[in-house]
Every structure is written in C-alpha cells, then in structure tokens.
Amino acid sequence: MSIELLFMVGGLALLDMMSPAALGVTVYLLLNEKERLSSRLMIYLFTVAGFYFLVGVFLMLGLDVVMTAFSSIFQNRIVSWVMLIIGGILFIASFYYPKSKKTDLPRPKSNSNAAMVALGFTTSLIEVGTAFPYFAAIGLMTTSNLAAFQWLPILAGYNFIMVLPPLIVFTLYLLLGRVMQKPLEMLRIKLSKHSGAAISWIMCIVGLILIFNSLDYL
C-alpha cells in the first residue's frame, strides 16, 4: 500500500465532505429540534456512515472477485479504459450541471429514533447515486489489490471523514449555544441554494482523478 494511494483516497474523502445532505439535515435538527437532540443526531449520522461503509465493503468484495477472476484476460487494461471514459464523462458533465440548482434537503418525519434511522437511509440512498468520490476511492483501492486488513480501516476512516463536518458543527453548537443560531441559519440557506455547485465541483475533480490515474495502465 503506497503513500500516494493513501493521499489520493484521503483527498477523495475530503472532497466527499462537500456533500450537502448530511450537513443539511444536521443544521435542520440543530435549528428546529431540541428534544433528545444529541442521541437522535448520533443515530442519524451512524446510520449514514454505516450504510456507506456496508456499501463500500460489498463493492470492494465484489470488485475484488471480478478483478481476480478476469485479471489474466483483461490485465486491468479494460478497467483503466472504463475509468478513463467515466472520468471524461464526469469532467465534461460537470460544466453543464446546474450550479444554481436549489435542493430541498431531507427532513425527519417524526421525533422517534426509528424516524432518524429511516432518514439516514433516505439520505444515503439519495446521495449514493452521486457519491463519485466514494466510488472512485473504491476503484483505486481495488486496482491496487489491497488485502482486506488494509482496505477495511481505510474504508472506515473514509466514512468517518465524510461525516466529520456535521460532527464539527454539532460540537460548535454544544460549545457556543445561541451564538451559533445566526451562522446556522446562513449555512442552511447556502446549503439549499448552492448544493448544485458542490456537486459540479465534485464531478469535475473526481473526473480528473480518474483520468490521470488510468493513463499509466492503458
């Protein structure tokens, strides 16, 4: 496992922090919910991180089996071409994605813990389709032929970094209390208005990473 791979996966994890859904739900809860706020927020974030971790494990195991079974035939060249094509599509599409697109962020239907779990699954299902950095990181780890004891902690660390912004915002809320009210209101408005721009940047950067990473194996 190379340092370069760790830097690339870490960079993708930092890029995934820009995802607005989990942070938007956290801001909504901090502004509108007071009853059992800490436990409900932790349940929500644990559900999101757990869902992505399980998806990552299944993808790593599945891709690893496919790569092992067909490596003698394709020698990873097909994978490199696929990564190059996907990277090119993401890079070009990023310039056409509506950057001013306004998004209605998910909200809990009730105050129960079950509702927070359901909200976590809903958020994850909405975001997983556009989780380009996560899929790129899984692709990089798969083509690097990492053993399970190597990629499991990387995957866990990736998911922790992904939910770090909501945890930081929640910590600041606990420390500063009412002082955070106005910044949270401003953050909620920005997340709603500019989520399209964040997705556009993510598509562009991930596309470039996939393109440059595939060139050496063509």
From TrEMBL:
Membrane recorded as keyword: yes
Keywords: Membrane, Transmembrane, Transmembrane helix
InterPro entries: Gap/Sap
Pfam family, one: SfLAP
Membrane spanning stretches: 6-31, 43-66, 78-97, 117-136, 156-176, 197-215
Transmembrane recorded as keyword: yes
Protein name: Sap, sulfolipid-1-addressing protein
